[in-house]
Design brief:
Layout (H helix, E strand, L loop, with lengths): L3 E7 L2 E7 L28 H20 L2 H6 L1 H9 L1 H10 L6 H15 L5 H13 L24 H22 L1 H24 L1 H27 L13 E2 L2 H7 L5 H6 L8 H8 L8 E2 L4
Parallel strand pairs: 3-4
Antiparallel strand pairs: 1-2
Helix pairs in contact: 1-9, 3-9, 4-5, 5-8, 5-9, 6-7, 7-8, 7-9, 8-9
């Protein structure tokens, strides 16, 4: 069955909201954010911690880049990549629903995130929001297959390493392919490349080895880990409705560290909803999700 999609306006962008085709005739969950959750600079007060973390880690990287020797920078590659792994889900949430009220602050934040998470501004929007979320029920050989597909062309399931390597080297091609169907966002993606590449070029000109070791290499490792982690979300879930197509982790520590990404069915049901509201949506639909697709463990 093909996914049911309806447009929803988020930050001036029209993303795909997919309604779960469940046993109760596709009943939609409804949830409103209490006014005391709304911020003045940030759209949601819950983003204070994530934004502070992103900025603190970026400040740490900048200090190391500016003052440390190449040896110290080299020793910091893995620790910085690990710190970046917790920035990746923050970036994911920001690309679904921008964190700040002011557009210019969101674009600056995009650059800070991109330099640490390994993927440029609007890359998530095109590949993930407008690609994966619309097509994740469709795996090859389907003609409109998932941009993060976990099957080969013959329909057989990839293993995790194969999936991760394929997506790592293929995602930029898919971004352009999706962008050709959404030229407005492709234009934003290409325009934001200019300041991003300008910052990277400046860093390489001033301190080339340090830029490679503090920003580029950790970012690439973080991106690979992000791809690796997404394999479990859907791989092997051969389903034609949203309630059976995702795995969930109902673990408090996991969801605290990932911004509730463990409630993955809820996220796909309401992709434009702020991450802090996902637990409530999960509770509304939990009894409709197959029990074997809800894990209590962290790993």
């Amino acid at each position: 069955m093909e996914a049911v999609q309806a447009p929803v306006r988020i930050d001036g962008a029209s993303f795909a909201r997919q309604s779960a085709d469940s046993g109760d005739a596709g009943r939609k969950t409804r949830i409103a954010a209490p006014s005391d959750r709304r911020g003045t600079v940030l759209k949601y007060k819950a983003d204070r911690g994530p934004v502070a973390y992103v900025l603190l880690v970026f400040a740490l990287r900048t200090v190391i880049w500016a003052l440390a020797t190449p040896l110290i920078c080299g020793l910091g590659v893995v620790p910085l990549a690990i710190l970046g792994m917790f920035i990746a889900p923050i970036n994911h949430h920001h690309q679904h629903l921008n964190s700040f009220r002011a557009a210019w602050m969101n674009r600056l934040y995009d650059l800070v995130l991109a330099l640490q998470a390994g993927i440029g501004p609007y890359g998530w929007v095109l590949h993930h929001n407008l690609g994966h979320h619309r097509n994740y029920l469709n795996q090859p050989p389907h003609e409109n297959s998932d941009e993060s597909h976990w099957t080969r062309r013959d329909g057989s399931q990839m293993r995790r390493l194969e999936y991760s390597i394929h997506l790592l080297f293929h995602h930029q091609i898919d971004i352009i392919r999706v962008g050709l169907r959404h030229p407005r966002y492709l234009r934003y993606f290409l325009l934001m490349k200019l300041p991003l590449w300008g910052l990277i070029a400046t860093g390489l000109w001033l301190r080339p080895i340090e830029t490679l070791l503090v920003f580029l290499l950790p970012g690439w490792i973080t991106l690979f880990h992000t791809i690796w982690a997404t394999y479990e979300h859907h791989a092997g879930c051969e389903a034609d409705n949203h309630l059976e197509a995702s795995r969930n982790r109902d673990n408090r520590i996991y969801n605290r560290l990932t911004g509730n990404l463990g409630y993955h069915t809820a996220h796909h049901k309401r992709p434009g909803v702020h991450w802090s509201l996902l637990p409530a949506i999960h509770e509304q639909i939990r009894d409709q999700i197959p029990e074997e697709q809800i894990f209590k463990s962290f790993w």
